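Why do we care about 3D structure at all? Because function follows from shape, and shape follows, mostly, from sequence. That is the central idea of this module. The next example makes it concrete: a single protein chain, its amino acid sequence, and then its structure expressed as tokens.
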Amino acid sequence: MPIFDSSFAVLSLWAVMGYLIGSIAFGMVLARVMHLGDLRTIGSGNIGATNVLRTGNKKAAALTVLLDGGKGAVAVLLARFFAGEDAAQIAALAALLGHCYPVWLGFRGGKAVATFLGVLLALAWPVGIASALTWLVATFATRISSMGGLAAAASSTFFMVLLGYSDVLILGILLTLLVFWRHRGNIQRIRAGQEPKIGAKKI
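And the structure:
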């Protein structure tokens, strides 16, 4: 953990800022701009990139990944620049909470994988790169989007230890637990062999 030497007011400010940045539902915005429909009535009803892909628009899905990841990184980098490492970690957690539970959508948000990876890249870029590669390998190997996200989250703690980023380890564990919690339904379907694969006709 970093040394928390910023004031409570400063940390609270960046908690709010991180939440607001994280709560921007880029999937919803892109779906509306590109006339793809309301994501909440498509597929799983999720606002993330996987559900955007179910509209058939690969460009929109790729942009959702980049923008959802980018907002996590932006929240961390802004907090670090203006306040310090302690605020950066607070903003990181708040950004994921904002993505998962956006007030604008009745606290029904995404599952945070792209935002999680963006946060990691800003907090500790070697860990972020290693986790992103794990996500890609697991996703392509299994053709199951949720497996890629779960593998990336689970491996991040290992990479933090291996690469010497113990100062973000506790935060990393909290973020990983949040990702797993958001994927609890997916985990049940994976265990039952019922989780849909990317490109499958039936959702």
